[in-house]
Amino acid sequence: MTERILNNMNFYIIPSPIGNLDDITIRSIQVLKELDLLIVENANKAKIILKHYDIKPKNVLVYNDKSTDKDRKKIISLLKKIPSGGIMSEAGTPLISDPGFKLITDLITLKVKIIPLPGATSVITSLVASGLPANRFQFIGFFPKIKKDAESLCGSLLNFNGTTIIFESPKRIIDTLNFLDQKFGDLAEVCVAKEITKIHENFFRGSPKKIEKLLLESKDLVKGEFVILIKVTNINESFLLADRIYNQLLSKLSLKDLSKVVSEITGINKNKIYKRFLSFSKNS
User: Fold this and answer.
1) How far apart are the first and last CA of the chain?
2) Topology given in CATH for the domain delimited by 2-119
3) What's the mean pLDDT when you consider all of the chain?
């Protein structure tokens, strides 16, 4: 009986603006006006959006990372009695680094029809403006707080040929960039997106060290919400490229100048390149 009732209802995943209140679709507004039950992550922030569009939902419940199994059962019990429900996160698309995942999996198990609405997400918005490859990417949520986990993540980045998208807080952004600089140096291409779609939106591009210095120029720059996008060049691939350049330009440049050029192209330390090329010349 439960499956039959829930199978006849629609449950919407409704993206909310990530900063600019105008960044919501007409369809989402229409759905919000017609829902029988709206589940929100943050009641106060939801009120701002609902008031802005003169939306008066029939019923509103809060579901966030503090919610329990008991809370989910209560929601499901209410959904049995109504034809439609939906979830809206604090900002952006629900379930992306968001507590709604468990609720949705429970509803899928009960054969509820899940209807995702397109809309705002800082993950894709930051990616397309980053200048980094967008044809292959991964999102990992917030950067690990535990050093061992951070080390493990950095190890995996060396083997991922694409862009990695990471959330970070203003309190940790400098430490995280410093950590990435220690691990990768100039082998990492980075874009830090700050306050996307908001008044103080900004994008910082370059090496981790360069961006760290830029952010430290003003205390105001370290405020807000951040997305880190990073593409790491595998050092083995970089050395292969360096060796190809060496073979083509050795007759035209001195070893010192050649090392400098290759370092700028590959991001590998100039001294490491010089020592490698010097060993080639000794063995030739």
Assistant:
1) 81
2) Cobalt-precorrin-4 Transmethylase; domain 1 (3.40.1010)
3) 89
